[in-house]
Amino acid sequence: MTREEKSWILYDVANSAFILTISTAIMPIFFKNVAARGVENAVSTANWGLANSLASLLLALLAPLMGTLADYQGWKKRFFLGFLFLGVIFTLLLTLPGEGDQLLCLFLYVTAYIGFAGANVFYDAFLVDVTSDAKMDWISANGFAWGYLGSTVPFILGMVLISRPSLAGLDSPLQATRAAFALTALWWLVFSLPMIRNVHQRHFLPPSTQPLRGSFRRLATTFREIRRYRLAFLFLLAYFFYIDGVDTIIRMATAYGVDIGMSTSELLTIILVIQILAFPFALLYGKLAGLLGTKPMLYAGLGVYLIIVLIAFYLPELPTKSTKTFFYWILAVLIASSQGGLQALSRSCFGRLIPKDKSAEFFGFYNIFGKFAAILGPLLMALASRMTGQSRYGILSLVVLFLLGGLILFRVPLSAGTMEE
Question: Domains of the chain (ranges plus CATH)?
Answer without folding.
Answer: 3-195+214-416 (1.20.1250.20)
